[in-house]
Specification:
Layout: E1 4-8, E2 12-15, H1 22-28, E3 46-51, E4 54-55, H2 66-70, E5 73-75, E6 80-81, E7 85-88, E8 101-114, E9 117-123, E10 137-141, E11 147-151, E12 161-167, H3 173-180, E13 187-194, E14 207-212, H4 216-228, E15 235-241, H5 250-259, E16 263-269, E17 281-282, H6 285-292, E18 300-305, H7 307-319, E19 327-331
Parallel strand pairs: 1-7, 14-15, 14-18, 15-16, 16-17, 18-19
Antiparallel strand pairs: 1-2, 3-5, 3-7, 4-6, 8-9, 8-13, 9-12, 10-11, 10-13
Helix pairs in contact: 6-7
The structure holds flavin-adenine dinucleotide (FAD).
Flavin-adenine dinucleotide (FAD) is lined by residues 36-37, 137, 148-151, 165-167, 169, 171-176, 195, 214, 217, 306, 330, 332-335.
């Protein structure tokens, strides 16, 4: 049995099907709420229940505290209504009309970008195109019903080929397969585009982008698109990695900085190797951001990569005046193996 969900302040209504989460039902009706991991871990989909009750589902304690739950908050990627509910959440109109598809694709190129990052170029079936916003991700659908999320690293104007940057996770089911058995011409299936991590075009605010490791992938798509389409807002990329070899497209970022006045690039290494002879910035990448921008009241920040970086960034940036609703992030949570 389904229930009616009223979304405030938009005043829109939609219905859920049996056992359907608020987020799934909203998406089925073409209403896009903020979301990212869909595993109850990243908290992007957190919103308020103004009336009615829900089954809160499974989630990680850090994503929704007991106090927040007692104050009426819920994670809409997990919450299943138990009666008609009224909720409060921001609707994201930029993603409206983008169709989420399940498509086959062929791996046409594989190339190592570093010791543990592989670029995969995926080709869609003849005549098929994927409309997406730079920064969005896809779920690779595995044979056993599992899914793995990877950001689209290429900008949509190059959508004849979709590029992914896959980091080899030790013991990782899918990334292990990519690094050991996958061959060019293999077939994959994916669902997408997904997520709400993309540049908010309605704003003129200066932009800071913070990437950790392969968190560079969605930011590459965002920047390629923004720079090619003449967006002239100031944009400053901070890319955090352990050592120089992990900045797997350092020259590309340097080239953007050399050819676009409004773009700056600061690489930050936390554990540079001795052979790196690194005299650039060191330490944690979020600390470099607040050292350079102690007053963030006027900025928007886009962060993607390891969950601890995204969370540490949030704490630091809020302390330096960033408004919470101007912090956009894709936290690279690992899959919880739900089909
Ligand atoms: C929205 C989104 C976008 C993403 N985009 C990218 C991307 O562009 N490139 C990329 O490389 N990754 C990305 N990720 C992360 C990626 O989906 C996971 O790392 C994925 O689980 C890897 O699959 P696997 O089968 O190789 O490893 P799994 O079999 O899922 O993992 C095996 C074990 O390794 C550990 N593990 C796996 N991933 C991580 C992690 N990220 N951090 C800490 N421990 C981990 C866990 O203990 C896990 O049980 C993204 C995640 C999300 C949610």
């Amino acid at each position: 049995m389904g229930f009616r969900v009223r979304l405030e302040p938009a005043g829109k209504e939609f219905t859920t099907e049996a056992k359907e989460t608020v987020l799934e039902a909203a998406m089925r009706h073409g209403i896009i709420l903020p979301y990212s991991c869909r595993n109850g871990a990243c908290a992007t989909c957190k919103g308020r229940i103004l009336s009615g009750s829900v089954d809160y589902g499974e989630y990680e304690a850090h994503a929704l505290s007991d106090d927040e739950r007692a104050a009426g908050m819920a994670l809409f990627c997990q919450a299943v209504p138990l009666e008609d509910v009224v909720i409060e959440a921001r609707e994201i109109s930029a993603a409206e009309g983008i169709v989420i598809k399940t498509l086959p694709c062929r791996v046409v190129n594989m190339g190592k970008l570093s010791h543990d990052v592989m670029a995969l170029d995926l080709k869609l079936p003849e005549g098929e195109r994927l409309q997406y916003l730079p920064g969005q991700y896809v779920d690779i659908l595995l044979r056993d019903g599992k899914r793995r999320s990877f950001s689209l690293a290429s900008a949509p104007r190059d959508d004849a080929l979709l590029q992914l940057h896959i980091r080899h996770v030790p013991g990782g089911h899918f990334s292990g397969h990519v690094f050991t058995r996958m061959k060019e011409r293999d077939l994959l299936r994916f669902r997408g585009p997904l997520g709400t991590f993309f540049l908010r075009r309605e704003s003129e605010r200066p932009v800071i982008l913070m990437a950790g490791g392969t968190g560079f992938a969605p930011i590459k798509a965002i920047l390629e698109h923004a720079l090619a389409s003449g967006i002239d807002r100031p944009m400053h990329l901070f890319w955090g990695a352990r050592a120089r070899r992990d900045l797997y497209l350092h020259e590309l970022a340097l080239a953007w900085a050399g050819s676009h006045d409004q773009f700056r690039y600061t690489p930050v290494l936390s554990e540079p190797a001795s052979e790196d002879r690194w005299d650039g910035r060191g330490g944690w990448v979020h600390e470099a951001v607040v050292e350079d921008y102690p007053d963030l009241r006027e900025h928007e920040i886009y962060a993607s990569g390891p969950p601890p970086m995204v969370e540490a960034g949030k704490q630091a940036f809020m302390q330096h005046g960033l408004a919470e609703d101007r912090y956009f992030h894709d936290s690279f949570e690992f899959a919880h193996d739900v089909a």
